[in-house]
Automatic annotation (TrEMBL):
Keywords: DNA-binding, Repressor, Transcription, Transcription regulation. InterPro entries: HTH_LacI, LacI/GalR-like_sensor, Lambda_DNA-bd_dom_sf, Peripla_BP_I. This is Substrate-binding domain-containing protein. Pfam families: LacI, Peripla_BP_3. Coiled coil: none annotated. Residues 4-59 form the HTH lacI-type domain.
Length: 350
């Protein structure tokens, strides 16, 4: 079916094509209100819609944004991040194009080239998890990094404030009276940025509370329920006077594994041990019994921030263009004061 052209509207309204163009683009002219209404009625009658490419050439705006990601569309947090980005795009009259590259550098380069050729108004470069990346070739200067930051700087970026999140988690346990607090870390050949920052937060709070950490309290496992269970088993095997009464876990899946290990020992959460997770992962944190106290990753807020900065609705921070998005505490039912005997033992050692 042939596309309805502006000349078809002009013929139906009995005016020139220039008049139609002025009316449909809301240009200030001396065209009468009667003629304006006739042109709009004719456009509706013949089914005319503006050509976005032609309009983009005139206005230098296509009302589109490209979001290029590695594996974000297959991760449990993708929905929140994309929802935030899409909501912000829609509120600013833009359409969001998502390209999931599967972490293939060649696919990534082709996607960026295609989006640039389509004259998108902005490009957002997103990652599955918080990391430092090398900006891909061909990325426009005004691009925004989402859940990652460029190694060389120079681009606006938004990442979770992992350090502050780690501090909040451990302060929650210290405030409940715990002094033997374990850090159940993820075991990877190349530790993620989040692991290092959360660990720093853990150590900061122990130091401010006057607690000397036992090296045996820092254990590692794969980032799954099985990994968390194995790490917790090693901690629960420690002598009674060194055994942790609280566990801060790298993620909620590992925290779920701590639950399993505790129950196999006849321990009850939070009566016997307290647990704090990280991520606030859907179908995990709120579904375990008792529901898990955790730190939420602000994926929706980060997605919104990236789009607003890309469109100039929000200013990027200066002089460091990387914005640390707060990670809020989600209070549930997995934290209480330590058992009396353990609490007294901790105070004697302190």
């Amino acid at each position: 079916m042939a596309r309805v052209r502006i000349s078809d509207v002009a013929a139906a309204a009995g005016v020139s094509t220039s008049t139609v163009s002025l009316v449909l683009n809301d240009r200030a002219t001396r065209i009468s209100q009667e003629t304006r209404e006739r042109v709009r009625e004719a456009a509706a009658a013949v089914g005319y819609t503006p050509n976005p490419i032609a309009r983009g050439l005139r206005t230098q705006r296509t009302r589109t944004i490209g979001l290029v990601s590695d594996e974000i569309a297959t991760t449990p947090f993708a929905g929140r991040m994309l929802a935030g980005a899409q909501d912000a795009a829609r509120e600013n009259a833009h359409l969001l194009f998502l390209v999931d590259t599967g972490a293939d550098r060649a696919v990534e380069q082709e996607a960026i080239r295609a989006l640039v050729d389509q004259q998108v108004d902005a490009i957002i470069y997103a990652c599955m998890w918080h990391r430092v990346v090398e900006p891909p070739a061909g990325l426009p200067p005004r691009s925004v990094f989402l859940d990652c930051r460029p190694a060389s700087g120079g681009h606006p970026a938004v990442v979770p404030d992992e350090l502050a999140g780690g501090r909040s988690a451990v302060r929650e346990l210290v405030a409940a009276g715990h002094r033997r607090i374990a850090w159940v870390d993820v075991e990877e050949q190349d530790p993620p940025v989040a692991s290092e920052l959360r660990h720093r937060g853990y150590l900061d709070v122990l130091d401010e509370a006057g607690i000397v950490p036992d090296p045996a309290w820092h254990v590692r496992g794969v980032g799954s329920a099985a990994g968390g269970r194995g790490a917790a088993e090693r901690l629960l095997d420690l002598p009674a006077d060194r055994r942790p009464t609280a566990f801060f876990c790298f993620n909620d899946r590992m925290a779920a594994g701590v639950y399993v290990a505790a129950r196999h020992r006849g321990l009850e959460i939070p009566r016997d041990i307290s647990v704090v997770g990280y991520d606030d992962q859907q179908l995990v944190a709120g579904e375990v019994d008792p529901p898990l106290t955790t730190i939420a990753l602000p994926h929706e807020e980060m997605g919104r921030w990236a789009v607003e900065v890309a469109l100039g609705v929000r200013e990027a921070p200066e002089p460091d263009p990387t914005h640390l998005m707060p990670c809020p505490m989600v209070h549930r039912d997995s934290v209480s004061s330590p058992p009396a005997a353990a609490a007294n033992s901790g105070r004697r050692r302190a």
